[in-house]
Amino acid sequence: MTKVFLHILIFLTLTIITQIGGLIYLTTLLVFKKQNKLKKGILFLGLYLLCSYFLIPKIAPLFGRVKIQDTANISSHSIITKLFNRNYVTADLYNTIENISIEISKKHPGIKIIYLDANFPFINKFPLLPHLSHNDGKKIDLSFIYEDSEQKISNLKPSRSGYGIFVEPVNHEINQTEICKKSNYWQYDFTKYLTFGKTHDNLSFSTKATSELINIIANNKLVTKIFIEPHLKNRMKLINSKIRFHGCGAVRHDDHIHFQIN
User: What is the CA radius of gyration of the chain?
Assistant: First the structure.
């Protein structure tokens, strides 16, 4: 019973974090059941990488999703995003990301769109945890733009995962985190535990460059919603009606930009 429970737990965990990992794990157990644990582990990793990098990108378009490709203007922040198949979007969102990346590169040559979590390759309504809405290929998170100690903007980020290092409100600004947590939304800032470590301590939030990026996103006709924290919307003097508060039931958005299309 313990062995069966362990297999079930591994299957569920791999399915939750990668969508396809559980199925590949189950296939490995059934097809290679006579192999020892080490060989099964190696075979699982080989099959998983083969599927993730070669097979899934060819099948995903049948489900209305395409893989985001790293280009001169677009890059994932972490290899984990690609390794866990969290880098799929609809063709319309992909084209939108490309157009936004071209616009920001015109303003700031060399600066890329750095994306975080997008969506899984298959099945609408399949949750991409811990996100509430990344389940239809039409949502994506982008990193803020940061600058170094000499106020030069950079593609570098202060968090290994891209999440969890917040641009905190100052004294005169709305502290939405405090408001939400006082209303018993305990999860509101839990992403502070998901940084996977801090890097580049010399970086600071670029108000100007990030506001330019958000305005480019907001001016795109296909974009319907953009989520950031209220204090940052006010700080950057953003007035577009697409830019809104996401609600206390989500997590705080002063470490990234969420946007979506219809």
Answer: 20
Closest by CA to 213, choosing from 243, 189, 244, is 243
Three-state DSSP class for 8?
Answer: helix
Tell me which architecture the domain covering 68-261 has in CATH: 2-Layer Sandwich (3.30)
β-bridge partners, 142: 115, 257
Confidence of residue 194 (pLDDT cuts 50, 70, 90): very high
Q: What is the CA 215 to chain-centroid distance, rounded?
A: 20
Give, in order, the Cα–Cα distances in Å from 221 to each of 92, 115, 173, 224, 235. 11, 20, 30, 8, 24
Residues of the chain with CATH 3.30.1380.10: 68-261
Alpha-helical regions (H) of the chain: 2-18, 21-31, 37-50, 56-59, 79-83, 91-107, 176-182, 207-219, 230-235
Evaluate whether 176 touches 229 at the Cβ level (below 8 Å). Answer: yes
pLDDT at 19 over 90: yes
Q: What is the mean pLDDT of the chain?
A: 96
Q: Whole-structure pTM over 0.85, yes or no?
A: yes
